[in-house]
Design brief:
Layout lengths: L22 E3 L2 E2 L8 E2 L4 E5 L14 E11 L5 E6 L5 E2 L3 E5 L10 E8 L17 E5 L8 E3 L17 E6 L5 E8 L5 E4 L7 E5 L5 E11 L8 E7 L7 E3 L9 E2 L7 E3 L3 E5 L10 E5 L6 E2 L11 E9 L6 E8 L2 E9 L6 E6 L2 E5 L8 E8 L4 E6 L2 E8 L9 E3 L2 E3 L2 E3 L3 E10 L5 H7 L5 E6 L8 E2 L8 E3 L3 E5 L26 E6 L5 E2 L11 E9 L8 E7 L4 E8 L4 E7 L8 E8 L9 E8 L4 E6 L2 E2 L3 E2 L10 E3 L2 E3 L2 E3 L3 E11 L4 H4 L13
Parallel strand pairs: 3-10
Antiparallel strand pairs: 1-2, 1-4, 4-8, 5-6, 5-7, 5-9, 9-10, 11-12, 12-15, 13-14, 13-16, 16-17, 18-35, 19-20, 20-23, 21-22, 22-35, 24-29, 24-35, 25-26, 25-32, 26-27, 27-28, 29-30, 30-31, 33-34, 36-54, 37-38, 38-41, 39-40, 40-54, 41-51, 42-47, 42-54, 43-44, 43-51, 44-45, 45-46, 47-48, 48-49, ...
Length: 694
């Protein structure tokens, strides 16, 4: 036994042999033979070096150096070798590297290996495999040739080809024999890649145009070394989407016993179908068919319209009269079942829009009794997904589906079951369409679009006899005591023409030549009856300027309601310098009210005037308050109701009756059925008509 404190001699342990899993040629793992990597230039090779820890050696650092070796045979068959040792030691477990010299020959199998040296001993050389071969690579110094592109459905430079919503095959090829893949980008899209899986190094992709007009794809090939070819540009021209294979407007004359088809066969109508029903405003639909929900309430062309197992889409305008049972908009027979159904489902609690095909079902959106909706179901055979759209927006989650291969008669208003037809529609249906292609989102949005309609525009320039006229001859705003129209006095001076002019501050009309002035003590203006259906989509805007920098109490700018409350009101709350949009849930005493939008403004902004607007989109049940073109966050509101009272300017209902009278000026009151776009809202309050189609 050694004496205490005596040094203990320990033999040095040599470094460990570098293992293949820790060797890299650039980012490629070490390999030899057919698996060797191809690189575009002389690579950097790296390895992890390890030196075992010697027991009982204080301060042992386990530092190692690397020795690399590379070799190949030149054109004469003579072997060439080079070695390299980095300067300095590395800690055990570190990665050492060598950037190989740039004069290594291309298209030659080059091998390399490495070993570790701790200054006393060296490790065995590394090996790529059990045979002892080194890691190998080949330098490829030639880029592949430009690829070619062909498409049968969308040939180059041909006017016009196939169409929106129709898939086409694009084939990429290259004269080079070492191409492994292609990178491509369609006009307006992002880069995508595809492997060259054809026996000739080609690749095929499927592409569906989503818009008509000129199209383009740019493609380049990549070889196994990562080199890329020059790009090829391929131009093609896309038709608009194919017309429906079946379309029934259902706007036939009252008393008709069948529905004329715009395309496809005419549809026989059961005795429970009445033509000449109401139509959704702001659309091209002029009238609809009303189905009574009985066994006689159906229409059928008595023929299949949708192909078995193929891409299809079906949709139409609907307004349910009841939501207490499952109901079908369209379906198609498949033996004693339905191959697909589009309609309303009620079995899981709240009613929901639904599209089912091939045992799969997509559900989403919220149907409401008496409310119009555009509903469309789509099955895309290329992706295998079923989609549901409600009012132009995708609803629910796209679901994998395998549609029936059995085809029977197309149905409107009912679905086939094993005991006969069921799930009959009760309410209105209009403009039913069936397509044999994908209906792309932009087309769905267009089909579901309801262009807003102007319902009133009061410029508030004049008020003869206490009536301020509507711009197009509609109902005037009646001015109560305390309300008047202010105009620039006839003898007022013009500062632009007369530099010595001293106009009265704050007395310029808000917009144009005049505005409405309210005294805050009972003055208001109103129509006799409602101007817009507040239970449906609507937009209303106005310009307001308060007379007081610090108003004493909340003041209402606009409201419309019923006997007991307001369907909506826009008011200003001076304590917080905030405009509020308040919605009540019913026309009843003490009905719940919800502040659905708030927009704070600087305190000094009230004296300059503000443009306010309210937009309610019944299709999405969202309501938004705009102040000076800036939107509040918007909120969901599902309790909108149709008001029976007139439009009120400058007052609203309170717990004590009429109140919140406005002290200030109001101008350019504009009202629309339908939800204006944000771009159109920005045009309100300028004395011009907004772009309703924007």
């Amino acid at each position: 036994m050694a004496a205490p404190g005596a040094a203990v001699a320990v033999d040095n342990l040599p470094p460990l042999q570098p293992v293949a899993a820790d060797l890299n040629t650039e980012s490629e793992p070490c390999a030899a033979g057919e698996g060797r990597p191809y690189v575009p230039a002389a690579p950097r090779v790296t390895a992890v070096l390890n030196d075992p820890v010697e027991d009982d050696v204080p301060g042992e650092g386990n530092l190692v150096d690397a020795e690399f070796e590379v070799w190949w045979k030149d054109a004469s068959g003579t072997e060439q070798r080079r070695r390299y040792s980095p300067v300095g030691l590395l800690p055990s477990g570190a990665r050492a590297g060598w950037q190989l010299p740039s004069d290594l020959p291309p298209w030659t199998v080059i091998s390399w290996r490495v070993r570790a040296d701790d200054g006393k001993a060296v490790s065995p050389w590394s090996a790529a495999d059990d045979s002892g071969a080194g890691c190998e690579f080949v330098i490829d110094d030639e880029s592949p040739a430009k690829p070619t592109v062909v498409s049968a459905e969308y040939p180059e430079d041909v006017f016009w080809s196939d169409g929106v919503g129709v898939y086409g095959t694009f084939r990429f090829d290259s004269p080079s024999d070492d191409v492994v893949g292609y990178t491509y980008r369609f006009l307006g899209g992002s880069n995508e890649t595809v492997k060259a899986d054809g026996p000739d190094g080609s690749a095929e992709i499927r592409f569906m145009p989503t818009s008509s007009g000129s199209g383009r794809v740019e493609v380049y090939a990549s070889d196994r070394s990562g080199r890329r070819s020059p790009s090829t540009t391929y131009d093609f021209f896309v038709k608009e989407g194919r017309a429906p294979v079946g379309q029934w407007k259902l706007s036939d004359p009252a008393g008709s016993t069948s529905a004329e088809a715009t395309s496809g066969p005419a549809a026989r109508a059961g005795a429970g179908v009445a033509f000449g029903g109401p139509a959704p405003s702001g659309t091209s639909v002029t009238s609809t068919a009303t189905l009574d929900g009985t066994g006689y309430g159906f229409l059928t062309p008595a023929a299949p319209v949708v192909g078995a197992g193929k891409t299809f889409a079906v949709g139409g305008w609907v307004r349910p009269a009841a939501l207490d049972h499952d109901m079908t908009i369209t379906s198609q027979d498949a033996g004693t079942a339905a191959g697909f159904t589009l309609g309303v489902r009620t079995g899981d609690g709240e009613p929901v829009w639904s599209f089912g095909t091939g045992g799969a079902r997509v559900q989403g959106g919220r149907p409401e009794t008496g409310e119009w909706a555009y509903v469309l179901g789509l099955y895309d055979a290329e992706t295998g997904l079923a989609h549901l759209y409600v009012n132009g927006q995708e609803a629910g989650i796209a679901t994998e589906a395998t549609p029936s291969t059995v085809t029977g008669d197309f149905q409107i208003g009912r679905a086939r079951g094993k005991n006969g037809y069921r799930d009959r529609w009760q309410g209105e249906i209009g403009d039913v369409r069936a397509y044999d292609r994908v209906v792309v989102p932009a087309e769905v949005a267009q089909l579901a679009r309801r262009i807003p309609q102007e319902r009133g525009h009061w410029a508030l320039e004049t008020g003869p006899g206490g009536l301020s006229p509507e711009a197009h001859g509609g109902a005037p705003l009646k001015l109560a005591t305390g309300a008047s129209i202010y105009n620039v006095p006839a003898d007022a001076c013009d500062p632009a023409a007369d530099p010595e002019c001293e106009p009265v501050a704050g007395r310029d009309p808000l917009v144009g030549e005049g505005h409405l002035e309210l005294d805050g003590a009972g003055g208001y203006a109103a129509t006799d009856g409602p101007v817009v259906d507040t239970g449906d989509s609507f937009t209303i805007g106005a310009v307001v300027r308060f007379a007081d920098r610090e108003p004493a109490h909340p003041m209402t700018v606009l409201s419309q309601g019923g006997e007991h409350g307001d369907a909506f009101k826009v008011r200003y709350v001076p304590a917080t310098h905030t405009f509020e949009l308040v919605m009540s849930h019913a026309d009843a005493q003490g009905a719940e009210e919800t502040v659905t939008g708030r927009k704070q403004i600087p305190n000094n902004a009230v004296s300059r005037g503000n443009k306010i607007a309210v937009v309610y989109d019944d299709g999405s049940d969202r309501i938004t308050l705009y102040v000076d073109g800036q939107a509040s966050a918007g909120a969901a509101f599902h309790s909108a109701w149709t008001s029976t009272g007139g439009l009120q300017v400058g007052r609203s209902r309170t717990a004590d009756g009429w109140g919140e009278y406005l002290h200030g000026s109001v101008d350019e009151v504009q009202v629309y059925s339908g939800a204006l776009s944000e771009r159109a809202v920005a045009m309100l309050g300028h004395g011009v008509e907004p772009c309703l189609g924007c």
